[in-house]
Design goal:
The protein is built from 6 helices and 13 strands. With 269 residues, it is mostly beta strands. It has one domain. β9 and β10 form a beta hairpin. The protein starts with a helix and ends with a helix. The C terminus is likely disordered. This is DUF3108 domain-containing protein. Keywords: Signal.
């Protein structure tokens, strides 16, 4: 999706659209969000508008979870998906009995041709990345990659914006898309929407011939430095196995067991 949007932007010579009634400064919370990401200590819960799936990314500076969420009645229930710890990636899988199991691989080996491609480790690594829209606050995030044609978004203007009959404080950011000759081919615009000083959504637009084309909206359920219990490892003990490297254990369908993750001390005795 990201590179498709960039290709659309690069296809046109775009004109920036004036942002009426703009103010000079960003919302006060913008610097708070930058500090959260710069310190690599944050809890983010979000959903791409129109999609059923939620995602949670949480980091305490040394570990990082990326969890999947589904709506259950009034609450979102998250399940373990990808976990970064000690420069190793863990992928979690549901067994037939509803229990979790995990595979682990050093980050340095993610692109190794020796690893079974069906385990999709490069895709697992991408799940740790922040959404494209949050590059307005976290351009330097270690897990978020940018295409060579991208440039860091810059603050352009503030306004009050009405969406579906509701008014929001809005900060607009513009991102230049460059050609190979390093000329500006076009722009993407990000509208960060705030309600009562809190970020609630980011809208992404392609600017084309004086018009805006909406590409995607990121709904923000939570963005905070209060991690609570969200960095806890699974409450039930999870068996961890090495990634499939085609070794004799895998050929015998007996993956190499490395030990347990999570669980209480009593369970591990």
């Amino acid at each position: 999706m990201k590179y498709r949007r960039l290709a659309l932007a690069a296809a046109f010579l775009l004109a920036a659209i004036p942002f009426a009634g703009h103010a000079a400064a960003e919302q006060a919370a913008a610097e708070t969000y930058r500090a959260l990401f710069a310190g690599n200590h944050f809890l983010l819960e979000y959903q791409v508008a129109g999609e059923a799936q939620f995602r949670q990314i949480v980091s305490d500076g040394t570990r990082r979870f990326s969890n999947l969420g589904v709506q259950r009645k009034k609450n979102v229930s998250y399940s373990y998906d990808v976990y970064l710890k000690d420069q190793a990636l863990y992928q979690f899988f549901q067994t037939g009995k509803g229990k979790l199991t995990a595979r682990v691989l050093p980050v340095a080996d993610v692109e190794s041709s020796a690893i079974d491609p069906t385990e999709k480790w490069p895709e697992a690594r991408k799940k740790l990345a922040l959404p494209q829209e949050l590059s307005i606050f976290a351009w330097q995030d270690a897990w978020t990659r940018h295409a060579p044609s991208e440039r860091q978004p810059v603050f352009a203007a503030s306004s009050v914006k009405t969406v579906a009959g509701k008014s929001y404080d809005c900060d607009r950011y513009l991102e230049d898309i460059m050609t190979q000759a390093q000329t500006v081919a076009g722009q993407l615009a990000y509208d960060a929407l705030y309600e009562n000083g809190k970020l609630v959504a980011i809208e992404e637009y392609l600017l084309r011939n004086g018009q805006e084309t909406h590409l995607e909206t990121l709904d923000i359920q939570s963005l905070t430095g209060d991690l609570g219990t969200h960095m806890d490892e699974p409450a039930e003990e999870v068996p961890v196995y090495a990634a499939n490297d085609g070794g004799i254990e895998e050929l015998m369908k007996q993956p190499r067991y490395l030990g347990p993750m999570g669980g209480t001390k009593d369970e591990k005795k």
